[in-house]
Amino acid sequence: MLKHNFSSYKLEAGTDEAGRGCLAGPVVAAAVILPSNFRHDLLNDSKQLTEKQRQFLKPIIIKEALAYGVAFVDQEKIDEINILNASILAMHMSIDALKIKPEFIIVDGNKFKQYQNIEYKTIIKGDGKYLSIAAASILAKTFRDEFMEKIHDKFPEYNWKQNKGYPTKQHRQVIIQSGITNYHRKSFKLVPDQYKLEF
Question: Which of 126, 168, 172, 196 could cross-link with 108 by S-S, CB 3.0 to 4.6 Å?
């Protein structure tokens, strides 16, 4: 059973990101403040759920949350400031988007930067431990997946509808054959060392 709060504060926001390990597309973060009586048996780390389950939970989280925010940081910014900084920036932006200011922030993972003057705690595998981080992981994942499905139509050969920009064998193969798009992250190792890409 996932826990509700880490701190004793009532307005505790959980935040998480999706798309950090992708070769293409944005990194997307979400922040969620849940009411103290919120419970849902299905709610868990988004990676433990099927796409259908995530899509089922998304409107429930949006409706039931006291506040939620979602933010996108695109591939150009990722190339400029690196993926770790871009992930933290996206999390900060998602907290900016909350209509209620949190009193405490819990973060999935072990890296974060101070947000305003609000106390925070980083929690490794937090999306499998706390409801608000799990909810944030689901929103980040579903919003990002929908974006990748939209841009799939522009570049169907990369099969983003299926791989969502992650480094599958097929995705790398198409990069080797066709090169890259403006959605690819140029600072990432897009193909194995024996292949060279022209930018």
Answer: 126
Q: Which two tokens stand for residue 190?
A: 């897009």
State the pLDDT at residue 191. 79
Domain borders along the chain are 12-152
pLDDT tens by residue, 124-142? 999 999 999 999 999 999 9
Which residues, other chains included, contact 136 with Cβ-Cβ below 8 Å and sequence gap of 6+?
A: 14, 15, 16, 29, 30, 31, 32, 68, 94, 108, 127
pTM of the model: 0.94
Answer yes or no: are the C-beta atoms of 107 and 91 closer than 8 Å. Answer: yes
- 8 φ, ψ (degrees, to nearest 5): -95, 0
Judge whether residue 199 has pLDDT over 80: no
Cα 101 versus chain centre, distance: 20
Residue type, 5: N
